[in-house]
Each structure stands twice: as structure tokens, then as C-alpha cells.
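Researcher: Structure for this, please.
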Amino acid sequence: MESESPLDTMMSLLGKRSLTIALAESCTAGLASSMIGGIPGASRFLLGSIVTYSNESKVSLANVSQETLDEYGAVSAETAMELADNVRSLFKSDVGCSITGIAGPSGGSPDKPVGLVFIAVSTGECVFRKLMLNGSRNDIRAAATNELFETVVDVVNFHEKV
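Model: Predicted structure, C-alpha cell format:
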């Protein structure tokens, strides 16, 4: 028997709970939003998404504070959580999600290597996951997206009041 994909599991849970979702994506450049949008009936759940690839767009579109970016950088738990909280507020969704990281093949540093990704999920309370992913740029983007879907399921199941 074939198991459900992380996306299918998340969409099923959102449907059962009548929850809405919004996303802020950086290194995945809209991949998660596109995958959700590819599901028939996604408009019942997906309220909106923004791709905030540059720091300027993180500030102007997602209201991330310049201080957060200056102190922690774009690829950080703090930025991921601020993105998730703010996109949830912006779209007035039940769940706000974010992905920020370094997909490569360049752009990494000793402190923040290629494959470092932070995802965050906000339901009023915000949680994050720090990932170290391997593979090509597309492998990292795909793995980060699946991790986000799995994290949404974990968070929504844990917070039954959502």
C-alpha cells in the first residue's frame, strides 16, 4: 500500500480541521505554494503566499524587522519565525509558514553552509526546525518543502485548538 505524501497528509489534515494556511518562502522560491496550489480545491485552504528572496522584500512585504536581519541574518530561526508569524497575520490565516535557507550550490559560509535551512510554523505560537540538507539545489528545495509540510502536520496535531 502506498503511503500519502507529506503534502497529501497536510492537505487532508487542513481539510478535516477546516484550517487555512499562508506561506512566506525564500530559498524555495514558491515551490511549497506551487505544490499546494496544484491540489484541486486548494483555494479552500491557501489564502496566499509571498516569495521574499531578498532582505529588502523580507522587510517590505513580510514586515521582518531590519534589526532581526542585521543581528541574526536572513537564514536564521529568528527570521524564519518572524516570517511565519507575519505571514499568518498578513493573510489572517490559521497557520503561517516560512522557509529560509541556502540552497546552493554557492552562497554558503563556514557558519551557514549550503544546505542550512530554517522552517517555521505559526499557529499563534511559533515553532521552528533547523535542517542540514544535502544534495543539489533542487534536492535541497524539495526536501525543505517536504519538511515544511511534515512540520505543519506535527504542529497542527500538537495544537488541537488550532
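Researcher: Any notable elements?
Model: Helices lie at 6-17, 31-37, 55-60, 66-72, 77-91, 137-158. The mean pLDDT is 95.
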